[in-house]
From TrEMBL:
Lineage of origin: Bacteria, Pseudomonadati, Pseudomonadota, Alphaproteobacteria, Rhodobacterales
Membrane topology category: Multi-pass membrane protein
Listed transmembrane segments: 197-216
Keywords: Cell membrane, Membrane, Transmembrane, Transmembrane helix
Subcellular location: Cell membrane; Membrane
Stated name of the protein: SURF1-like protein
Superkingdom as given in the UniProt entry: Bacteria
Gene Ontology CC terms: plasma membrane
Organism in which the protein naturally occurs: Shimia abyssi
Entry's family note: Belongs to the SURF1 family.
Pfam families documented for this protein: SURF1 (PF02104)
Amino acid sequence: MARYLLPLFFGVLGTVVLVSLGVWQVQRMGEKEAYLSDISARIGAVAADLPAKPDPVSDRFLAVRAAGQFTGEELHVLASTRDVGAVYRIVAAFETSDGRRVMVDRGWIKPPQKDVTRPKVDAMIEGNLHWPNEVDSYTPQNDLAANIWFARDVSVMADALGAEPVLIVLRETSENDPTVTPLPVDTSGIANDHLEYIVTWFGLAIVWVAMTLYYLHRLRKSEKA
């Protein structure tokens, strides 16, 4: 009987640990889904006036509106879309009617349109405040001479455009014939892999139980032999 105790102990311990991890991931998935639901509601809310001093934490994804003029100054951020492939995001300087200078992510253009001059244009815009976290150790250095950026870094882009470190990702514009296709904020870029982890941990728990039972069965057979 004693020879069964150690494998049985590890079998039970491993099962408890794996099931606990699976349950924890179920809880985390519920929290993440509630978080994504809150963000979606915030993104789609009725737009408010642009705050005087937006906060990167409390005002992230806030729906805002502003009237003013695109100045024609812009940065080109290399990106990609599922349907088109390689594109450039246009991050443009926008002077509001009350004298502020902020940035607007107007959306995407195809690479051949990169060096096309986009003139000054008055517009009423609606969009969402965003401070993307796109820079990591693998991000290449921006090619400032060619105006090719590899990530949206709000503070660095603001310095380049002489604007406040405020980025509005465009959702709607009053322009009659916008030259840039808006690429609004959504939750698709926020990872939610908890279901995969749930399947992994509970799957491993089932395998662990099966292996423990098989090992105990082999021990019993060897005893009888």
